[in-house]
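Message: I would love a firmer grasp of how sequence relates to backbone shape in proteins. Thank you; the sequence and its tokens follow:
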Amino acid sequence: MITFIIRRLFIAIPTLVIISLVVFLLLNLAPNDPMAQVPLTVPPEVKQKMREALGLGQPIHIQFFKWLVQFFWIEPQVLFDYLFNTTFSEGKQRIISWQTRSPVMDIVVQRLPQTLWVVGMSYVVGILIALPIGLYSAYKQYSIFDNVGTFVSMIGYSVPPFFSGVFVIVIFSVQLGWLPSIYDTTHTVVDWETFKFQVKQMVMPVMVLALQTTAQINRFMRSASLDNLNQDYVRTARAKGLTEWTIITVHVLRNSMIPVVTVIAINVPYIFGGALITEQVFKVNGIGHQLIGAIYANDLPTVQTITFMFAFLIVSFNLLADIIYGLLDPRIRYD
């Protein structure tokens, strides 16, 4: 296993470098001008000096190398300085947003908790709902419960977040008036009343994202459980007189979780894709909202940094899924 992890890390590092190069080139080929937001009254020579200050007058390979150094060397030093009160990054040039003229990672750190609250909670809720539904649907195959669960899963997997988000806003905010339609990111929890409001404003965005997670994990769980219910060890357990509850919850569930856990790990980065749209619909001031705003403003450093962070999550969680699969199933060997 150690050899496999080391080998995968050696593959992951050049993969990430290639991904960063592709993202950098694609974004640089797109028509963008950081001076587009500058007032027309600013003289052209001042705009040219501003472009040079942002490093736009340099060759593209120099810009790419500087970004690599800033992202992989200077930004980790900033984090180290913050954690241990050192000064390694003092005076060094960081990745600067064209839109806000401030370090991109500082804005990401400010908005990350909002995204993690919504995305993390929705993923946990979706998994907790999907696992028992998928297991029971497999146990009661072709029953009314199974057919309803399959139908709901197909709808949840097919309906995009921009439709389901608007739909729940119309029902629960406009028609019923139960829940707020806009997520207040400035809200702080200090007592029971503020906690209840926080729960209320999280219900709809969590519901929208959890619907997709539930639909996908439910289908995988049902398929894996059906495969295990027909195995010889289940018939042997029944012949020994074990209760159905013991067979399902101990034997079938444990073996069915082997492929499902890997799917859960792989899908963690992709839930952020749904969060991009969901944050726009509910006005959640998270990373997805920051990325969309940076795209509208032609803020190349912010778009490039956040896009690469998503790619880093995908590569990292794919590696984690492979490791978890090997730990859960002793039959898997990575020799």
Notes: The CA atoms of residues 167 and 277 lie 14 Å apart. The chain has a mean pLDDT of 81. The first helix runs from residue 2 to 29.
